[in-house]
Specification:
Elements lengths: L23 H6 L10 E8 L6 E2 L7 E3 L1 H13 L4 E7 L16 H13 L4 E6 L21 H18 L3 E4 L6 H11 L6 E8 L6 H6 L19 H13 L3 E5 L5 H10 L4 E5 L1 H12 L5 H15 L3 E4 L2 H10 L1
Parallel strand pairs: 1-3, 1-4, 1-10, 4-5, 5-6, 6-7, 7-8, 8-9, 9-10
Antiparallel strand pairs: 2-3
């Protein structure tokens, strides 16, 4: 009878990367990237004339705040240790020039003062510096008689808007209109008005994206047409870096890539190119997609939120603007 023939023993690998994944504690110890509450900024919408928060249907869990509920939201954000809040105003009345954006008694400027009075320096109080929420045509700038964006007249309005927001007490303004030269004009206006300490978060690489839809509900946008003559073409990454470098040259203290998830490569390129902090905006459509999939039971919601934010930070963003900021802070505290 022949002896049974056994297969030769397999020599196991000497190098086993899986060893560092054996336990939760070990995985946590060697993690290359981590997200902290201090790196997160919570965008908040405040609507003129509201007595209580109004839900935004396309962004479950996000609301248009009243001035009173806004104060409660920022107090919670401060307690959670978030890095800051970004304020957007929704006025009752709009006009062709967005005059409500410049009005010291306009909703955004009043909200800035409310928030600073509530949290002091416990949060970085940021404000959107753009006309689109305030214009009846929904564009980020003033229009010529034939309907084109008048870049240089818009810069004059941005300078006045910067002065108004600084006077209201803002820590950091966020010019998001993608007008050529906007950072230089805003920096000059702030410095001339003795607001040299107010910093600028430049929306440097802001793309004409299909993912902005829910945001337009959030601010009751009146947009007619599109913004492709001033927001960047989605095909262009080198241009995004160029815009960021121009903004740094003009005095930006921080630069932004928006949206985040569809432009993680641009986040990385910008991070490698500039010597100032880089922010990325995890925008409304990105938020809505995760929320919708989770509502249908197609993904595990909380891990998906944290994985999304981790991916943006791993790509190179030092600061992440996200509607999940407060919830993420709670989740991170439990880990």
């Amino acid at each position: 009878m022949n002896d049974e023939i056994l297969p030769p023993a397999v020599a196991g690998p000497t190098v086993r990367p899986r060893r560092l994944r054996t336990t939760p504690a070990l995985r946590r110890m060697v993690a290359e990237t981590s997200v902290e509450a201090r790196q997160l900024v919570l965008p908040l919408f405040v609507r003129e004339g509201l007595d209580e928060p109004r839900p935004i249907s396309s962004m479950p869990g996000v609301v248009q705040h009243s001035r009173s509920s806004l104060r409660k939201a920022v107090a919670e954000a401060a307690e959670l240790g978030l890095g800051g809040v970004m304020l957007f105003g929704v006025p009752e009345h709009k006009d062709a020039t967005g005059s409500g954006a410049l009005d010291p008694a306009g909703i955004l400027n009043l909200a800035i003062t409310d928030v600073v009075g509530e949290v002091g320096d416990a949060l970085t109080v940021m404000s959107d510096l753009c006309l689109d929420e305030f214009t009846d045509h929904g564009h980020c700038g003033l229009l010529t008689p034939d309907g084109r964006i008048d870049n240089d007249r818009t810069l004059e309005a941005y300078a006045e808007m910067a002065r108004a927001q600084a006077h209201a007490g803002v820590d950091m303004v966020g010019p998001s209109g993608m007008m050529d030269g906007q950072v230089a004009v805003i920096r000059e206006a702030l410095d001339a008005d003795e607001h040299a300490d107010v910093s600028i978060l430049a929306y440097s690489a802001k793309y004409a994206s299909a993912f902005y839809g829910p945001f337009r509900e959030a601010v009751d946008s009146s947009l007619q047409g599109d913004r492709r003559t001033y927001q960047q073409d989605s095909a262009n990454a080198v241009e995004g870096v160029r815009e960021a470098l121009l903004d740094v040259e003009q005095g930006a203290d921080m630069v932004m890539v928006k949206p985040a998830l569809a432009y993680l490569d641009v986040v990385r390129r910008v991070r490698d190119a500039v010597d100032v902090p880089v922010a990325a905006y995890n925008i409304s459509g990105e938020y809505a997609m995760v929320e919708a999939a989770a509502a249908h039971g197609w993904i595990d919601r909380e891990p998906a939120i944290l994985e999304t934010l981790l991916s943006i930070h791993r790509a190179g963003a030092d600061v992440v603007l996200t509607y999940w900021a407060a919830e993420a802070a709670h989740l991170l505290a439990r880990r």
